[in-house]
Write a structure and sequence with these properties.
Shape: globular
Number of domains: 3
Strand order of the largest sheet: 6-7-12-10-11
CATH topology of the largest domain: Uridine Diphospho-n-acetylenolpyruvylglucosamine Reductase, domain 3
Largest sheet: 5 strands, antiparallel
CATH architecture of the largest domain: 2-Layer Sandwich
Strand content: 25-35%
Number of helices: 7
Bound molecules: uridine-diphosphate-2(N-acetylglucosaminyl) butyric acid
Length: 335
């Protein structure tokens, strides 16, 4: 365990917000985390890849950075393999590594910022695939008493950008390892998401490999989403709202071109499209802005403070509410 005093977190969150931690603690194993919570209780903040959060203030207290590495095969047969990843493994590097081994399952989730340990928390998803589709289980430490837990897929209560870790276990569990099931052959290729299908068609590919799907996803994401290494951001800042059938019908009459998708519990709308309709795409005030190619993504052009980004988010939410009577919800965690 390494302890740093009064440390800037600017390089540890993809928004690049410069707030400080009174103490920054790097944990390299589940045992270290267990010992820490037994002696100190819950840290003020647990940090994974820092890709789904907005820091609006300094953190008074300990920030625990989960820096556990490792990739190990824990089960294998002719068709599939279960691999256990340390929570601190970078997600996209893991995706690329699985593709180099010829494994399938997470190619549609290429280039999502963040680490393996936080992937189950919000059930990361893109282009028709969610983490839950490949999740086997995850291990971790309960902050209450430092005991170890192991949660399987059935108990993780996955939903759209949701899981047990955002509900019953919020603030109570620190994930240390995640096991995923990947295919060695007969890959489940998913190209149903419109943009993937049309890209493949353009390239003349009819039977894509997982690696080719990944290449297409990377190209699509790079064309519309900003690279956090160049412009600070946290991916989609808001969740796509799910509204009732009646509300969706009423809006479709007013806006015949509005994208909508069937969802459990109603109809899912595209928050990016709605924010775009309200004229916010490309908006900038000082260093806080709305990305020019995807209105769902808020950006930090350099020196924006977390509360400036948050004020912009509130202005967008108010405007959307006034025009569409829809209450948007942030997808990122506000600290
Ligand atoms: N759209 C606009 N203007 C915009 C943005 C989007 O008109 O500024 C329209 C698009 O043309 C499309 C629809 O809205 O018809 C949906 O857009 P897109 O396909 O880009 O997906 P999204 O709903 O905006 C979601 C995820 C993304 C994920 C993509 C692809 C959420 C909150 N976001 O975005 O996830 O990459 O689908 O699967 O569910 C993330 O979570 O950080 C993230 C980037």
């Amino acid at each position: 365990m390494i302890v740093q005093i009064n440390q800037s977190l600017a390089k540890l969150n993809t928004f690049g917000i410069d707030q400080k931690a009174s103490r920054l603690i790097w944990a390299h194993s589940a045992d270290e985390i267990s010992n820490y919570v037994k002696h100190h209780g819950a840290p003020a903040l647990v940090l994974g890849g820092g890709s789904n959060m907005l820091l609006t203030k300094d953190v008074e207290g300990d920030v625990l950075k989960v820096d556990i590495h490792g990739r190990r095969v824990v089960f294998e047969d002719d068709d599939k393999v279960h691999i256990r990843f340390g929570a601190g493994e970078n997600w996209h590097e893991v995706v690329q590594w699985t593709l180099m081994q010829g494994l399938g399952g997470i190619e549609n989730l290429s280039l999502i910022p963040g680490n393996c340990g936080t992937a189950p928390v919000q059930n990361i998803g893109a282009y028709g695939v969610e983490l839950k589709d490949v999740f086997v289980n995850c291990e971790g430490v309960l902050v209450e008493d430092g005991s170890f837990f192991n949660i399987n897929k059935e108990d993780a209560n996955f939903g759209y950008r949701n899981s047990i870790f955002k509900n019953e276990l919020k603030g109570k569990a620190i994930i240390t390892r995640v096991t995923l099931e990947l295919t060695k052959r007969n890959h489940r290729i998913r190209t149903d998401y419109g943009a993937i299908a049309s890209e493949l068609e353009k390239m003349g590919i009819t039977e894509p490999t997982p690696k080719q799907i990944s290449d297409v996803v990377v190209a699509i994401r790079q064309s519309k989403l900003p690279d956090p290494k160049e412009i600070g951001n946290s991916g989609s800042f808001f969740k796509n709202p799910v509204v009732s059938e009646e509300k969706a019908t009423e809006l479709t009459e007013r806006f015949p071109n509005m994208p909508s998708y069937p969802a459990s519990g109603g109809v899912k709308l595209a928050a990016g499209w709605i924010i775009d309709q309200c004229g916010w795409k490309g908006y900038r005030k000082d260093d806080a802005g709305v990305h020019k190619n995807q209105a769902l993504v808020l950006v930090n052009y350099g020196q924006a403070k977390g509360d400036e980004i948050f004020s912009l988010a509130k202005a967008i939410m108010d405007d959307v509410y006034n025009r569409f009577s829809i209450q948007l919800e942030p997808e990122v965690n506000l600290i």
